[in-house]
Amino acid sequence: MDKSFVLEHCKGGHLYTLVGAGGKSTAMKLMGKQLLEEGYRVILSTTTHLQKDEFQGYPCHIGALDSLPEIQGALLAVAGEAGEKKYKGYSQEEWEAFPIPLDTIVLVEGDGSRRLPFKVPYSHEPVVPRNTARIFLVLSAAVFGKEATALNTYNLEGLQEAVGPQPYYTPEV
Fold first, then answer.
1. Residue 137's closest CA among 15, 31, 19, 17?
2. H-helix or E-strand spanning residue 105
3. How many other CB atoms are found less than 10 A from the CB of residue 152?
4. CA distance linking residue 52 with residue 42, whole number of Å
5. Is the distance from CB of 145 to CB of 168 less than 8 angstroms?
6. pTM, whole model, 2 decimals?
7. CB 47 within 8 A of CB 89
8. In the predicted structure, residue 127 carries a pLDDT above the cut 80
9. What is the rounded end-to-end Cα distance, in angstroms, of the chain?
């Protein structure tokens, strides 16, 4: 991800939500690193669930948003543990009530895709707080030119409903 793009579209004191397919966690971590280099404090989190293994090495706050410690650099903030492999995030309402200091940027994953490269959301997705300043849609270019299957598409039925029974990933789709 181009650093100038990130700096042009992210400003302190705001929350940004990443939605879509596989690559959101990677994009969020890269954006966070680029914003740290510019002197921002960065909170990484979710409104759903995050894979624990994707955030190894990040300082982690597990608990209420209003009990966040003073942030130095980047911090993964989650509401709790949702089992052995995932963290549980905060609700839309919790993010909407959270005051974001001007020297801080919050990057939030708004949905999951089971690590698949393309996603068609269900009606209850994504979970985007109303105070989101900008939504970033993430999808993998690895699917271009390939047939859509259950191995590369989250909610294949939704895609087939929208574009037909045997879709191939093209720029038009």
1. 19
2. strand 104-109
3. 18
4. 18
5. yes
6. 0.91
7. yes
8. yes
9. 23
